[in-house]
Amino acid sequence: MSRLHASQDGWIRISAGAGAAPAVSGQARFFKGYAVDGGDGVFAKWDWDGERLRASTCATGFLPLYYYADGQQAVLATSIAGLFAASGKAPRICPASLGVLLRLGFLVGDHTPFEGVRLLGPQGTLTWRPGGGPEVSSSYLQVQETRADHARESYAALFRASMERIAAVMAGDFAVPLSGGRDSRHIALELYRMGCTPRFALTARHLPPRNDEDVRVASELCGTMRWPHRVVRQPVLGQYAQECAHAQAVDFMTYEHAWTMPVRAALHDSGVAGVFDGVGGDVLSAGLFQDEQLLGRYLDGDIESVRRGLLASWSQLGGEDALEDTLGPLLAGACTPGAAEELIDAELRRHLGQPNPLKSFYFWNRSRRGTGLLPFRILSRHVAYAPYLDRTLLAFLLGLPPGATRDKRLHTDAIAIADPVIGAIPYEDKHARAPRQRLSDRVAFYAPMIARSMTSGGYVNGRFVAPRAARACLLGGDLQSTWWKPRRVAYLASLARFVHQFNPDTRTQGTANYAFNDR
Residue 4 has what pLDDT? Predict the structure, then answer.
């Protein structure tokens, strides 16, 4: 594959009429993402040659490509809104998939919350001819256990090589979101070493209960490297609207990380062509989510126990009772845990036999289906360069035995080896004191939630949500730890508006009756 990079979203619809030539709309040939020499990179593409539609994804499948196909038509799109607009179909909720999302905060495998719509997975291929169903295949990278001796030096060298491959094809005008952690710092120090200066680095402030350590550390880094540094603030009065807008920006695939929306606005306004992102670095090399007890059960093949542990960890306070009380009557099917558990179990089995199955599960699911939506959906107007997704580096990190990341020092030590000066700057203090949330901040978030919960068209149980939102507003209740999960409620309100805009009649129908029919 030649060197390519493109950032525009796209779609194609091909409908097969009886005895007539197929009707085609959209882009007959499409590429989005970037590719480096050798065919690696992060991308999705398709081609219609007049007889056959072919689509494919890169080794990781992180750049979303959604599809709906049957004997009469095939629709591909890089956004959910684009897919439904192109198809002329009304969204239909899939209770099992939505049930997974509402419990974990992310989806698993290649499922979406919409019935009949799937994501083309890693190393994915799709072939469709008029009159037939799609032929689809995908697979995770097969990795062998990596030798753990000299892991720090090998990591530093492989990451440097990944950055050099990207530097050979990247746009000259780019920006670097920079936090107080390790993933973005490793990117920054390699750019600095190569003499590649961004137009600016960018750091987001946070609202309570998070502190502003990102800004403090990133400012020191930029001062050391003499990089221009911009700081963006979170909206206070529009925080609820930001949560709802975020849900649509990530195609309703997660309800986490709405704080990234101001980053999106600042980058879009700047007009930069490219942006770097450290997606995957924490899970792959910093031991994030490496629960030793859960990992031990996974290595023993106890899928049921691992699933229970995951659900307990991510559902936290409230659990099933809070979910059942929160959902309105149109989403009652998502309350049933059995179907969601089956999807989780099936995905967990796919990672058995991996050197670190828990890392593999989190990378291919939470990283790909959750945090990966920041660079590849929220920042979709830009080419997003993701060096941790380099195939060679990825195979090395996924192949490391659990002991290599048990002490959570691998990434810190690799950065210190790569650049002792930048690596010596202290990282964020996650326990630093954060400012208290003000009453006005809570009113700005909870007041519209109370109003929307009573008019959600059957998605949210307003009689449960409204009094609890009022209490959280008056007495204090942050969006992170409140047991009934206010962010999940905002997500559901946005999902309801999206579905109803395609089919207003769904306000009075049950989940099983949602039509995926022509408007």
Answer: 61
